[in-house]
Amino acid sequence: MTRKEQKEERRKQILMTALDLFVSKGYYDTKITDIAAAVPMSTGLLFHYFESKEELLVELVKMGAAGTGSFDPESAGKIPADIFLTGFLKQMFSYAKEQPWVFNMFVLMGQARRNGMPEEARNIALSVGSIDMTATLIAKGQKEKIFREGDARVMSVFFWAAVQGIMEEMAMNKDMPSPDPEWIVSMLK
Amino acid sequence: MTRKEQKEERRKQILMTALDLFVSKGYYDTKITDIAAAVPMSTGLLFHYFESKEELLVELVKMGAAGTGSFDPESAGKIPADIFLTGFLKQMFSYAKEQPWVFNMFVLMGQARRNGMPEEARNIALSVGSIDMTATLIAKGQKEKIFREGDARVMSVFFWAAVQGIMEEMAMNKDMPSPDPEWIVSMLK
DNA sequence: ATTTTCATTGAATCTGTATTCAATATAAAC
DNA sequence: GTTTATATTGAATACAGATTCAATGAAAAT
Predict the structure, then answer these.
(1) Do A179 and B154 touch (CB under 8 A)?
(2) How far is B46 from chain A (nearest CA, A)?
(3) Are B183 and A150 in contact (CB < 8 Å)?
(4) pLDDT digit string (tens) for A9-44?
(5) Most C-beta atoms within 10 A of its C-beta, which of A189, B69, B81, B176?
(6) Rounded to an integer, what distance in angstroms lies between the CA atom of residue A102 and that of residue A83?
(7) What residue numbers bound the domain in which A163 lies?
(8) Residue A68 lies in a domain
């Protein structure tokens, strides 16, 4: 295995460990030493791979931002809005068990958007247009009389706030069963 | 004004300032110097009134825990569950403008429950039984066929997760209009 | 086989912030 | 009006945790 590949491998290990800890303990309560110990490696070595704790967060959020391709307007336009959102949530919740890191990624993206998080990461997370896209989707659903009346953008903001809250609850409390996606989408109906 | 009264007054000032900052910037990003400057007073003086930053948080969470009296099973038993919850949310959202500190208090209580928050405060916040009480309420609503089927406790957890997410969005984004309480409660129907 | 690169360690340092403290001002208590 | 308690300040200190660094080991490159 070439050196470059090894390095890439190790970086991934570190990122996945950090992701897990950031989500389960929170960014500020996760110490660099916690991450290093969990990988495991010495704390010093961690800085051979990443400049800083914040870079870890930024790197993760960038990955998250890049990975929102599955949630694109293209495929969303073809099927009824409610079906699309339900399907999206269903997949998300299935990730919670099958691919925890994908699930954690979404949780982290939501957390990164909050006040008090390091600015760079926050800006990247905020730049992801899931709220706008969902607003468009909701507006579409309203025209088709599938969704109730109301400011589509406000509805989108609240829809995601609810989903974020739910996902964090799941991330915190591992044995919490995932809710019925249709139940959640029904709040728009 | 007697010395004791003065001290009590000043403590309240500090607590209200801290509450505001904790909610708008987050606990970890709020520095003691920020609080002192906002009161305003010297940083040293703040420690004349409170032992530590954490004591401020704990004090606030204790107040929050004590103030949940309005959400009691007594009054909840008398009216239909959906009306009760809707009324509760309506009041909460009206507080957002009329009595911001009450609103902030609720937001803080929710935040304090999360992983990564100082243990003592977290435990107090977690000990408040709003989830259990709401679960009871939901179960009652289910018997009356007002609410949909499902594990009442899980529904309660998610209901509050959604409400918490919404309130944080409102706290962060001051000009966000408050959502229709009935719309939120409808997720249980 | 030798060289060279870089992965690795853990102790030393640096930094930001919470907390303490000695000195002073103020105003309540008497 | 004097005394006394305590409110107040800002600089000094303590501390936790991030970051650096000099030394060592291992294995890739040649």
Answers:
(1) yes
(2) 22
(3) yes
(4) 999 999 999 999 999 999 999 999 999 999 999 999
(5) B81
(6) 21
(7) 53-186
(8) yes
